[in-house]
Write a structure and sequence with these properties.
The protein is built from one helix and 17 strands. By secondary structure, the protein is mainly beta. It has one domain: Beta Barrel (Porin), CATH 2.40.160. Strand 14 and strand 15 form a beta hairpin. The longest helix has 18 residues.
């Protein structure tokens, strides 16, 4: 039975460590800072964002994520600092931690800048044995104890942007730290590098309407790359409606509005995979406020 427990633990850790190590966001175009430290300080104001996501509603212990972030410029308007705290849970596996970011912004010409950023993170990776559901609850090998380990890491990002377009390339979990929760599992799993390529352009259709198409390519060294295609329409720069398609996964509807410096956004993911037989979809809410000069942003938000 102990071997079975170790097998289950290995599978659960592998699911978290190899399938969905990093949280999934549908409204990342509203807060791309979560994906690329090169964005730190690029808006000219201080965007504070709270994101709450419940994935695969209807499935017990499905992934849930909460993240609170902020970033802004310091010094002579060419350096940015920021950070965020997060909690991500998937069944008995959870990660809770903090990340701090720094970016330096180079002026390419009058309209275009390049942000080069680095971030360091630290989080607690935990497996709670009390959340396991064994066939034989009386088995002495299953103590129900929680095991955890401290995981340090680093991310890098480059972000080229102007008032009309943005292109970003970033890498996360660069150290590929090994997960060690049990002596018999030590060294069997580790964090893997994730890569993101994000780009978009802002078209002014009229004085009242703007359209912002964008794409995100993401993947790891061990999994196929995935493509997100997004289109958002803004009305009077205060209301938006958007649609996204995530290859082999989901179609997404985004809606939201802005009142002065405050934002509210909502996203619904309709799953295409086999999980659609068990889940009614995923929900994500984003709350935000912009502090400072709101007219210096490089994008509508």
């Amino acid at each position: 039975m102990k071997k079975l427990f170790l097998l289950i633990a290995t599978i659960l850790i592998d699911l978290s460590v190899n399938a969905q190590q990093l949280p999934l966001y549908s409204q990342y175009m509203m807060n791309s800072f979560l994906l690329n430290p090169g964005i730190t300080g690029s808006t000219g104001y201080i965007p504070i964002r709270l994101t709450v996501r419940q994935q695969w509603t209807g499935i017990e212990d499905a992934p849930s994520t909460q993240a609170l972030s902020a970033n802004g410029l310091i010094g002579k308007q060419n350096m940015g600092i920021g950070g965020y705290i997060f909690n991500d849970k998937f069944g008995p596996i959870s990660s809770t931690g903090i990340q701090a970011s720094y970016a330096y912004h180079l002026r390419i010409n009058k309209e275009i800048k390049l942000g080069l950023g680095l971030s360091i993170s630290a989080f607690q990776f935990k497996m709670n044995g009390a959340d396991l559901h064994p066939l034989d609850a009386s088995d002495q090998a299953l103590t129900g104890n929680a095991e955890s380990t401290f995981v340090p890491d680093a991310n890098f990002g480059a972000y080229l942007y102007s008032n009309k377009f943005f292109v970003g390339l970033s890498g996360a979990q660069l150290t590929q730290y090994k997960i060690k929760l049990n002596e018999e599992l030590a060294g069997s799993n580790q964090m893997i590098r994730h890569y993101y390529l994000l780009g978009g352009y802002q078209f002014e259709v009229s004085k009242e309407f703007d359209i912002q198409p964008s794409v995100l390519i993401k993947g790891t060294e061990h999994t196929p790359f995935q493509l997100d295609v997004n289109v958002k329409t803004f009305y009077k720069k205060n209301y938006w409606l958007g649609f996204s398609y995530r290859t082999s996964d989901a179609a997404i509807v985004l809606i939201g509005f802005k009142v002065n410096r405050f934002h509210l956004g909502y996203a619904f993911d309709y799953t295409f995979s086999n999980l659609s037989h068990y889940s009614t979809g995923s929900h994500e809410i984003m709350l935000g406020v912009n502090l400072g000069n709101k007219n210096k942003g490089n994008r509508l938000l």
